[in-house]
Amino acid sequence: MKPFSLFSAALFTFTSLFSCVAVTAQRDSKEIARPANYKPMELQLSPELQTILARSVEETLSSLPSGGFKTDEIAATLIDLRNPSEARWANVAGEKKLYPASVVKLFFMAALQQQLEDRKVVLTKELERGQRDMIVDSSNEATQYILDVLTETSSGAEMPQKRFDAWQHKRNRVNRFFASMGYTNINVNQKTFCEDAYGIEQQSRAYKGQNRNMQTTNATARLMAEIALKRFVNAARSENMMELMRRDPFKTTKDLDDQATGFIGKSILDNNWTGTKLWSKAGWTSRSRHDAAYIETPDGLKFVLVIFTENHANEREPIPLVAARIISAMRGESQQARPFSTSQ
Questions:
Q1: Backbone phi, then psi, for 232, in 5-degree steps?
Q2: pLDDT tens-digit series, residues 258-287
Q3: Kind and range of the H or E element at 23?
Q4: Where are the domains of the chain?
């Protein structure tokens, strides 16, 4: 099978959401630049992985109470990285654009690492603290600070159209960076909030949310894979990002929504897969429940798994059930469905 580029669209595809004038971008000294030696990942579509992923999702949804999940309320992407030069992948609704919640912070972290490498941003103790809190603790306040640094914008009052256009051009800096690398079907230009956006932040969202953050599981999985393979920015920068995403699925916590134990990591804990390593970034709101993870098992599995769900934010079983079935199937094991639990 010939290699298939997961995202083979034209490198610079700009929509009205993040249009810009080329001359303006060239004059922007803080524009986030694609590395000269960067090459997009090439993946092979795998019928075997497609069967595993589709069956794992289908069997999980079938095991839930009748009338529970609908098939259009879940999307997932799986990338097998055991052989990086011939990486294989599969997806279920992987190009569906969904609100990413805190998973968008992966993109902000990656963009910041590029700016730090290019010395367009200086790492201070406060910036280091903000980046850590954004990824390790999923702090929204820290994320707001990081996006301000990346785009040289700040929250405040609404602006007249001409001033707003200039502000919005800067705010779209992260979008332009990922578009230049061939990432499509994403919008990563909004802050995350515990409650709601106001003023110019709401103006930027187009008031009714038309310009909210949006991601696909395909794009998210690609970024996770590039970081896990130590090829995003460079090996050292990728390792920094991996360290921020390192999780302990066996840690003791009373937080049922802990990033390490409440999402894909729950499958590792529930099945007592000791020695399994987890790196992840979860996201959840009143409607969304997502996780993006890279996993290594003692018997040699190395893979990225991204699962987004909608309208079932408080249901903690589906994501780990899908993950458990995938891990078992990749090992050639028979994974029996555990009884569905409605415990919160």
A1: -95, 120
A2: 999 999 999 999 999 999 999 999 999 999
A3: helix 22-27
A4: 40-97+217-339, 99-215
